[in-house]
Amino acid sequence: MSHKADLVTQASCAAGTVIGGEYEVGQLIARGGVGEVYRVTHRTLQAELALKVLLPEHRDREDVRLRFRTEGRALWEISHPNFVKVHHAGEDAVVGPFLVMELLRGRSLAALLARATIPFEQAIALTIQLAEACQAMHELEMIHRDLKPANVFLVAAGGGEIRAKLLDLGAAKIAKYGTPPTAEHMTVGTGRYMSPEHIACLPLSPASDVYSLAQIAFEMLTRSHPFDPAVAAPTSFDFQQWHLQRPPRRLSELCDEVPEEVSDVLLQAMSKSRVERFQSMTAFARALGQALRLARNSVPHEAPVSPPLAPAGGTRKMSAGELDGPSTEAMAPPFGERADGVVALWVWLQEGAAAKSFPLRAGELHVGRSERVELRLDHPSVSSKHARLVVHPNGIVELFDEGAKTGTWVNERAAKYGMLRHGDRVRLGQVVCELRLVDARLWR
Ligand SMILES: Nc1ncnc2c1ncn2[C@@H]1O[C@H](COP(=O)(O)OP(=O)(O)O)[C@@H](O)[C@H]1O
Ligand SMILES: [Mg+2]
Fold first, then answer.
1. Are 297 and 101 in contact (CB under 8 A)?
2. Phi and psi (nearest 5°) for 431?
3. 329 lines ligand 1 (CB under 6 A)
4. 263: which of 6, 7, 150, 400 lies 20 to 30 Å off by Cα?
5. What single-letter DSSP state applies at residue 336?
6. Which of 207-211, 303-307, 419-423 has the highest mean pLDDT?
7. Could you count the other beta carbons within 10 Å of the beta carbon of residue 80?
8. Taking the chain, what is the end-to-end CA distance rounded to the nearest angstrom?
């Protein structure tokens, strides 16, 4: 089925429905992890606008509804040329809370990156625009937490210029609106772009958004990521491990055209330690601008100032005209489940018998022989309440030995406490289990 036909079948609001007494529903533009966005017409003004409603499965969830209302309020407060503009927010008897925005005509950065890299100077200019939008948000004590190409929209700004518009404050941390209603143990965000401190559930700061924006800049220039090029289809979990442990590649090593000065700025923005990064988006944008000027000055006159980078299938400069046409959007995993699609499995490896596999949900559970524990291993060497597991939504699993007589081992080393990773073997008495983290999107 074509993408367009797909969208028609996925629309939960039929064309012609009137929402909030005024907004007549047209075509479904896209579905995100939380909401559906429709093209609508304001009946009195005959104005074309975009309307976002929650996906049907989230409409009864009070935490998601609250977060959605907060998103509208935050977008209204920011009001920046590089942020999508909100016109109205309301509550409809059928679809629940809704948000009316300017209708952006163009395509998301994610849809564009599915087709081409972005020429060097354009990519840096877009990064600076996004940094300015983020700065405005940070000054209002908000942290986006979900910067990614699907949350960036590109519109033609006239004269062939392209303007980036930041979307989706659904995951934002907004200190002054009170504690955001994120479910306990839930990490919002997208593994591929998350800062190390975000993955580790540590406090975030504007420098956390700087890290994610640098990942986006890298991707705009390479359609790749700064980590292991040998892995063909990295999972969200791979990314999380790399963000925590692997040094990023230098951009200039991948593309001759990118000056060392710009590579240095991006490397600093991707420092593992957030104190080593730029502490504000203004500082990041300024450093990028300076690097660009330095690079321009050191380029001989006859050489092209901004050689476009080669997209797959040949070198081509992107023009505003490429922004026309329907936008295509990859489906994001549903909000409220593991945002990263990683599922933890506890595999009981039984000698001479088939392995048994138990999915681990985020939260806390006990392992033991008793019928009252959440994860039962019926073997005489296992104590009735042998160990406790704390499963974090980002794939980290903590193990606590509960004083079991026959002991608990991780990879054959006695452990009272351990932080488990994919492939770790845990032995409870004589029973051997293995933790496996799999990307559910591969088999869903
Ligand atoms: N104002 C808008 N105009 C046009 N398209 C939009 C607009 N807002 C969002 N979209 C499209 O809808 C998609 C999902 O919107 P988003 O706000 O990110 O929803 P979610 O919170 O579900 O991720 C975006 O990636 C974008 O392609
Ligand atoms: Mg989104």
1. no
2. -90, 125
3. yes
4. 150
5. T
6. 207-211
7. 19
8. 18
Closest ligand to residue 148's CA: 2
383: tokens are 């104590």
Residue type, position 155, single letter:
V
Mean pLDDT, the chain, integer = 83
The tokens describing 2, both together, are: 């074509």
Atom nearest to 34 CA in ligand 1: 22
Instruction: Find residue 107's DSSP bridge partners.
Output: 154
Decide: 145 and 172 in contact? Cβ < 8 Å: yes
Instruction: Read off the pTM.
Output: 0.69
Q: Could you tell me which residues come within 8 angstroms of residue 7 by beta carbon, excluding any fewer than 6 positions away?
A: 27, 28, 29, 30, 31
- Tens-place pLDDT, residues 397-431: 778 889 899 999 988 988 877 777 788 899 999 99
Q: Which residue from 86, 87, 94 is spatially nearest to 56, judged by alpha carbons?
A: 94
- Which pair of tokens denotes residue 97? 């809370």
* H helix runs in 79-173, sequence order: 109-113, 120-139
Positive/negative CA dihedral, 139, 220, 241, 185: positive
Question: For residue 240, how far is the Cα from the chain centroid?
Answer: 11
Q: What distance in Å separates the CA atoms of residue 227 and residue 145, rounded to the nearest whole number?
A: 21
Tokens 């504690």 map to which residue?
A: 179
- Looking from the CA of residue 104, the nearest atom of ligand 1 is 3
Residue 152 CA, ligand 2 centroid: distance in Å: 8
pLDDT value for 301: 39
- In 126-277, DSSP assigns E strands to 142-143, 152-158, 161-166, 173-174
CA distance 180 to 171: 9
Record the tokens describing residue 225, joined without a space: 């990521």
Q: Hey, whose CA ends up nearest to atom 23 of ligand 1? A: 32
Q: How far apart are CA 439 and CA 444, in angstroms?
A: 9
Report whether 165 contacts 136 (CB < 8 A): no
- List, in sequence order, the alpha helices (H) in 233-377: 236-245, 251-254, 260-269, 281-298
Cβ(29)–Cβ(39) below 8 Å: yes
| Neighbouring-strand partners of residue 52 | 37, 99
- Contact by Cβ (8 Å): 108, 329: yes
Q: Which of 411, 415, 428, 420 is nearest to 391 (CA)?
A: 420
Sequence-distant (≥ 6) Cβ neighbours of residue 35 within 8 angstroms: 52, 53, 54, 55, 68, 170
52 close to 36: Cβ distance less than 8 angstroms: yes
Q: What is the pLDDT of residue 150?
A: 94
User: pLDDT tens-digit profile of 161-185?
Assistant: 789 999 998 888 887 776 555 543 3
Cα 406 to averaged position of ligand 2 atoms, centre (Å): 48
